[in-house]
Design brief:
about 100 residues; about 0% strand
Length: about 100
């Protein structure tokens, strides 16, 4: 699998509470970036009154791919993020370095 072991599990499972996705932060930098992208996309869709179907049609991204991104079930690729960014007009990628919380051991 591309990305090795770090991508063997979906991003939502790499948070402290998968049921709280996308609100629960992740100690994994990749999963945290996906979480922030999902949160920004949800907000953009809500602000514009866009459904999954309308977002898929307008962006050219498969509806199931968008649903999986929003639910934290997949690792979106750069082309997917670029298409969604172009369609919504919102920068989805996190600004600056992704901040992660380290678990206390």
């Amino acid at each position: 699998m591309v990305g090795g072991h770090a991508r063997a599990r979906p991003p939502r499972e790499m948070t402290g509470d998968p049921e709280a996705w996308p609100e629960a932060p992740s100690p994994d930098a990749g999963a945290e970036a996906v979480r922030q992208i999902a949160r920004r996309l949800v907000r953009a869709m809500q602000e514009r009154g866009l459904s999954l179907r309308a977002t898929a049609a307008g962006s050219g991204v498969n509806r199931q791919a968008i649903a999986d991104l929003l639910a934290g079930r997949s690792w979106p690729d750069v082309a997917t993020i670029a298409r969604l960014t172009h369609f919504t007009g919102v920068r989805l990628w996190p600004d600056g370095p992704v901040r992660v919380r380290r678990s206390k051991q």
